[in-house]
Amino acid sequence: WRGAPWAEFDSCRLEAVPVEFGDYHPLKPITVTESKTKKMGRKGSTSSTSSSSSSSMIDPLSSVLDGTDPLSLFAATADPVTTAANTDTTRKKRDKDDSLVVGSDFEPWSSKRGEILARYTTTEKLSIVSALLNDFGSQKELLNLTQQDYMNRIEDLNQSLKDAWASDQKVKALKIVIQCSKLLSDTTVIQFYPSKFVLITDILDTFGKLVYERILSMCLDNRGSLPDNFTPESVNDTAKETCLNWFFKIASIRELIPRFYVEAAILKCNKFLSKTGISECLPRLTAMIRGIGDPLVAVYARAYLCRVGMEVAPHLKESLNKNFFDFLLTFKQMHGDTVQNQLVVQCVEIPSYLTLYSPAIDWILQCIAYRAPEVLLTEMMERCKKLGNNALLLNSVMSAFRAEFIAARSMDFIGMIKECDESGFPKHLLFRSLGLNLAMADPPECDRLQILNEAWKVITKLKNPQDYINCAEVWVEYTCRHFTKREVNTVLADVIKHMTPDRAFEDAYPQLHSIIQKIITYFHDFSVLFSAEKFLPFLDMFQKESVRVEVCKCIMEAFIKHQQDATKDPVILNALLHVCKTMHDSVNALTLEDEKRMLASLINGFIKMVSFGRDFEQQLSFYVEARSMFCNLEPVLVQLVHSVNQLAMETRKVMKGNHSRKTAAFVRACVAFCFITIPSLTSIFARLNLYLNSGQVALANQCLSQGKIGVCFNCIIILSCQKTEYYYESHKLHYYENILWWLFSDFSFVYVYRRINEAHVVTF
């Protein structure tokens, strides 16, 4: 204004109007005197001024944009008074919408968050540059940050947002959110962008929740809080005005990306203003994304809008569909010159770049496909064909829609996969996605073998062992689900062929373990399983002891769970003895007691399932072999003693108590097995119990010499020696003394027992 005529300056001023402060409110309409100045010339001219009074609020944006600016749109969303018929219709529609809430079958964003952060990482330096952030450190400190430093800084901003809000610094809180949203326009380290999106949207979610809860708290009155399905009519004027004020502030943000993200963050607050507010805002926000030039930034903006939309209005699928179809219209931008030049500067290959889109596209399609009819998949497939069967889009479609829909069109998808350009997105990833669907749903029976052949033609040609095993792991389940031992054996042979060179299996233990779990899930006949030529060689690839033991435990758990009848199949016995021996040999001085108990329980479960019928000698030979193999696990030795005692009693039952010379020799061998095994146990009371049980079995089978001499003298020595050391458990020892007196009540026992006790100076 320097040099301007003061008279002209004064003539352009608005005339002051007195205001009654009792009626004053910044959001209420006020009386404004409008001064219109007509300039006759630029120099040496006079101006005529006319004034008129108006009772309506004059908006400078309205005169320019013809009332289509965001502020006018928000102001126009006030609900009119409707008729009773319209009210009834609205109520029915709302009841219908409430029934379309997101169920537990919808995978939430929180489950994807950790996977994205773990997958999209970088070793390059990151930066956060903003004038607002000087409160948290100098600009130099916000440059050249490592990934972890960057994540810590973003977390600090999230906490600063909460602190500013708690201290009633709402403007500062809004500035923090705006500045953080601006970071989403930065793609200088493009590999990290998906993780950056996750971190920044956490802050936006926090802000949206704070604003919503703030306005909701203003609705409290004598009636209490609002119900979950409240209507705008039940919201008081103060809450509505505050809500409008937030939208007005956000609408005045100059830059597109922060304005879009911040408004999307508080989209739920439209519920306080209008019943149709959300349904009117979603198309407008969708249209706003068209102004974002970078396709990667735009697709993640669409993903965030879908995420918010599914939370606040899952029934508004039309807006979500339009959001995705808008993305398809701009799909070719990913291969434009601008993107290509950016990738050259950052030394990023096009396949790596395209994978950055996967989390966003997968989420958008998941929202669209949720409880969608099958006809939508048909439409999506047609659109994919129009785009030249783009592999990235096709992969997301197969990941999003129901497995039943995908399986029914398996051959169609295989045809589309064949026609895809493999330069941007590898075909084996497409076959992997198809295999994941076929593991959950069955394709038409007439197509099953052809599907396997077409898929394995691609998988077996993969040179990279990691790519190969990631695909093979998925298709093994399909093979086990629909085919026999022959096909599974062929697949296992191919896996061994690919993973053995250069010991590639050492980097693929999780996938190999998963293959074993899938096989034993579908093959419960272990005679068929172990007769497969390549199954045991496949187990030999697990050469790391800890992994090998875990695999053996899985096999034994499956055997105990699914084996219904006792077995004497030599194929099963030899294989499972090898498996159990592997578990037993892993026990050392550092093994925890819980681990020992678990391993012993699995081995005992196997021992109990072995039965040779009336071939008692073969049964005893098996127990002798088991004792030599599992000597380091006491619970297994205890089980073997009980099993041999039971075997002796079964022999007595068969002979009806009258043993022949052959059976008498056999039961004496059983008793000898017990008396040889029991002393190796360290538990005192386990030995006493087993001696007593074995003594009863010996006496029942007329083995008097073994019963009296073996049991009597061993128990006497145990009792006499342990009374001095375990005097505090003497009541237990007295119990065993009484049993022994009852079993062997003759002079020799009493004499020996007294003499031994006198030698130990023990008072009874």
Automatic annotation (TrEMBL):
Keywords: Endosome, Protein transport, Transport. Its main location: other. One of its GO terms (cellular component) is endosome. Residues 32-61 are annotated as: Disordered. It is found in: Endosome. Residues 45-56 have a biased composition (Low complexity). One of its GO terms (biological process) is endocytic recycling. Belongs to the VPS35L family. This is VPS35 endosomal protein-sorting factor-like. It comes from Chrysemys picta bellii.
